[in-house]
């Protein structure tokens, strides 16, 4: 996900979270607070309404006191009590006219007035008829109320014993007040009770509560209202129609709950808060959107745009792979610091790249130019001399037996020799000549502008002399030589790779012909090497292509002059070069490893021929050459036993020939020979006397037969001491219990002398050349060296 999208999502998330949190805070806290304020205001107004109710009662009592605490009223009650009637006498008439005339009622908002004596009997009572404007006697309901008051309330005995309240009548609720009747100076005892009442109509309630925002209702207590109260004297009802309602119980004149005062008013704070919140929400939302847009613009302008520019510059440097490009830095912010640090990193990378490029052109051990730099120098030299008569000499050097130093003394000695060799070469070449190490123990020298062959020879002689000097390393004096091949531009080629290849071929020829020499490339050399490569490749498939053929050379036993043994000799007809000498292809097969497969083919073919001979009555033993590689391979014994079993041959039908070089190959060869001999196979040591083996090997190794090499046989003569070496070998072998085979007999004189010296078996062209299997059968039948058994 792009950073731009992430930032937009983050800012939007923060904005939504802020809006949500603000909305929640406003509704949870502010609106709840508004509701509490409305409730508190409603409760205060309820208190005011109750106070207005009591104030109305107080007004009613005050108006009644103006009548009750008069001397005229006192005298009226006193006279009426004395006469027993309130309707007689001038005093009563005067009092009624002055104090209780019809205008007194509406003036004091009275609907009823009653004057009672101390016994509670009404001495005066009047009920005001508002529509008619007249005073009428008390109604029956009013008289019943007076009796109820007389029965339930005590007669006020002191001036302060006034009582006010309401009573529920059939016509409605009446506010009523009671006060004692006293004289104006209040020095006489209470003589009676004055009662005044006013019906509480809706307009009267409206007069009690004149608030325009709220309304007050007074209603009789009912069962539903009691249920809504929950046992409380003050309670509220759920909000309905935007109105809040609060209720309180009012006790009647007799201190019994009888009426509910209800106050209703709109949710002023809540509604005002909602309007404010609506305005605030809109303003807040717009502000958040503006802040969101501003934040995105800010991020896009000062962060993302800078970042995109930085990425473009980095991508441009990466795609161009040019470390010289730098990012222009501007400003003082963090991106400028990144640009500065990136440029600093590019500086470091450029420096490191230059160092690595330089190091990549040098060999880390000798600090000489490596293969890559050498080829660059060689191409430059070829381009410089091209078209002129100047020549370039390419010298290819490979140290002789260097692997032996590493294997025996360790790589520390090897590295020391390589460094010393590099130093010596650089000391004997010219100032403009290039010395390099191609790898391993291979060095090359590029000799510039060598004028003639004598100069080349002198320079190469100095190089060879420097390389042949001994090395003194950690107290060891090590002698080392080198095989050197050269190629010359332009006579040996005009291509760098081709010149190196030609010099390498010349060096390889030196390696194969004895080492420690110098050889220049020639076309004949390349043809010979190419021939070896082709033959080595063809040897891999020669057995499968039926290109091999076995010839057998008879071996005569001197005891009865009979052929009891033959030597199997391999012949190869190459598809490219025709018949190839074993002296050429056997070493190639051993060096390439294909000798193992070829040896298995030979063993199988020999066993097949031996069985064929036996089927014709010829019980012969076949001597088969076994290479060191075959002896070191696991499974040779198992292969031989399997072949003997397959072709139903005894182990004595095979004699395994090995060379002296096999004897010095190690204990593994010794164990292998022991196992072969233990299973009945005879072991023959071929070409004895030409190798470097010690005579002690004849005693130690399990050998049955010694074959004297043809070089000793060819030098035999009838002159004195002409047979001393052969005689010594035969006598030594017999003393060790070994049989002797003399090979390479080409003359009758050699044949006779070997018979006289006691050679057990004879082999050579004098007896017979190697023959094909069919020709051998004919030879044995027709010759004088065979008797059928």
TrEMBL record:
Subcellular localization: Cell membrane
PROSITE patterns per UniProt: EAL, GGDEF, HAMP
Domain EAL: 532-784
Gene3D superfamilies cross-referenced by the UniProt entry: 3.30.70.270, 6.10.340.10, EAL domain
Domain HAMP: start-end pairs: 301-354
Pfam family, any one: GGDEF
Transmembrane segments annotated in the record for this chain: 7-30, 282-304
Domain of life of the native organism: Bacteria
Residue ranges of every copy of the GGDEF domain listed in the record: 390-523
Keywords, alphabetical: Cell membrane, Membrane, Transmembrane, Transmembrane helix
Name of the protein: EAL domain-containing protein
Organism field: Paenibacillus rhizoplanae
């Amino acid at each position: 996900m792009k950073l731009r999208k992430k930032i937009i999502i983050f800012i939007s998330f923060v904005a939504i979270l802020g809006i949500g949190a603000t909305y929640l805070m406003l509704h949870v806290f502010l609106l709840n607070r508004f509701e509490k304020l409305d409730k508190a205001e409603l409760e205060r107004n309820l208190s005011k309404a109750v106070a207005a109710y009591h104030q109305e009662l107080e007004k009613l009592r005050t108006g009644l006191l103006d009548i009750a605490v008069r001397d005229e009223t006192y005298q009226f009650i006193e006279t009426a009590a004395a006469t027993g009637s309130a309707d007689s006498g001038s005093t009563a008439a005067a009092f009624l006219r002055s104090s209780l005339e019809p205008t007194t009622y509406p003036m004091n908002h009275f609907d009823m007035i009653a004057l009672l004596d101390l016994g509670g009997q009404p001495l005066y009572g009047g009920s005001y008829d508002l529509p008619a404007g007249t005073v009428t006697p008390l109604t029956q309901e009013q008289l019943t109320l007076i009796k109820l008051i007389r029965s339930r309330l005590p007669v006020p005995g002191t001036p302060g014993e006034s009582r006010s309240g309401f009573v529920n009548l059939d016509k409605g609720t009446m506010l009523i007040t009671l006060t004692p009747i006293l004289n104006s100076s209040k020095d006489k005892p209470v003589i009676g009770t004055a009662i005044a009442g006013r019906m509480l109509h809706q307009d009267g309630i409206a007069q009690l509560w004149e608030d325009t925002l709220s309304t007050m209702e007074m209603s009789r207590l009912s069962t539903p209202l009691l249920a809504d109260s929950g046992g409380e004297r003050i309670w509220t009802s759920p909000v309905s129609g935007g109105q809040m309602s609060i209720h309180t119980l009012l006790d009647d004149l007799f201190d019994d709950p009888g009426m509910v005062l209800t106050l209703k008013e709109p949710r002023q704070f809540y509604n005002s808060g909602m309007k404010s919140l609506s305005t605030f929400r809109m303003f807040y939302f717009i502000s958040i959107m503006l802040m969101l847009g501003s934040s995105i613009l800010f991020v896009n302008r000062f962060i993302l745009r800078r970042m995109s520019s930085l990425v473009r510059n980095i991508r441009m440097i990466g795609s161009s792979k040019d470390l010289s490009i730098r990012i222009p830095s501007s400003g003082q912010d963090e991106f400028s610091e990144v640009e500065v640090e990136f440029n600093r990193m590019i500086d470091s990378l450029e420096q490191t790249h230059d160092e690595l490029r330089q190091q990549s052109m040098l060999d880390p051990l000798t600090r000489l130019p490596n293969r890559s730099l050498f080829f660059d120098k060689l191409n430059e030299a070829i381009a410089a001399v091209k078209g002129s008569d100047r020549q370039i000499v390419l010298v290819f050097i490979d140290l002789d037996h260097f692997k032996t130093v590493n294997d025996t003394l360790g790589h520390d000695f090897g590295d020391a020799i390589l460094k010393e060799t590099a130093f010596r070469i650089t000391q004997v070449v010219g100032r403009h000549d290039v010395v390099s190490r191609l790898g391993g123990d291979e060095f090359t020298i590029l000799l510039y502008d060598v004028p003639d062959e004598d100069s080349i020879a002198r320079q190469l002689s100095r190089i060879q002399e420097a390389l042949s000097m001994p090395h003194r390393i950690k107290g060891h004096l090590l002698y080392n030589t080198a095989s050197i091949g050269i190629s010359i531009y332009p006579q040996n080629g005009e291509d760098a790779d081709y010149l190196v290849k030609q010099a390498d071929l010349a060096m390889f020829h030196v390696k194969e012909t004895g080492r420690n020499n110098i050889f220049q490339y020639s076309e004949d050399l390349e043809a010979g090497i190419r021939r070896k490569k082709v033959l080595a490749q063809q040897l891999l498939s020669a057995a499968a292509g039926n290109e091999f053929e076995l010839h057998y050379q008879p071996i005569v036993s001197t005891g009865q002059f009979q052929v009891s043994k033959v030597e199997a000799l391999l012949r190869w007809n190459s598809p490219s070069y025709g018949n190839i000498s074993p002296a050429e292809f056997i070493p190639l097969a051993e060096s390439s490893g294909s000798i193992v497969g070829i040896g298995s083919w030979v063993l199988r073919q020999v066993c097949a021929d031996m069985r064929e001979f036996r089927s014709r009555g010829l019980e012969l033993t076949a001597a088969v050459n076994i290479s060191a590689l075959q002896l070191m391979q696991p499974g040779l014994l198992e292969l031989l036993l399997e072949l003997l079993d397959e072709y139903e041959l005894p182990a004595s039908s095979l004699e395994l020939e090995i060379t002296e070089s096999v004897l010095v190959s190690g204990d593994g060869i010794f164990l292998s020979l022991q196992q072969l001999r233990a299973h009945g196979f005879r072991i023959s040591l071929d070409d004895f006397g030409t190798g470097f083996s010690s005579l002690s090997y004849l005693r130690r190794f399990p050998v049955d037969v010694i074959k004297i090499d043809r070089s000793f046989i060819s030098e035999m003569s009838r002159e004195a001491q002409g047979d001393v070496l052969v005689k010594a070998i035969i006598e030594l072998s017999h003393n060790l219990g070994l049989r002797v085979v003399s090979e390479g007999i080409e003359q009758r004189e050699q044949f006779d002398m070997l018979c006289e010296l006691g050679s057990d078996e004879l082999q050579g062209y004098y007896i017979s050349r190697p023959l094909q299997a069919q020709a051998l059968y004919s030879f044995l039948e027709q010759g004088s060296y065979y008797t059928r058994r």
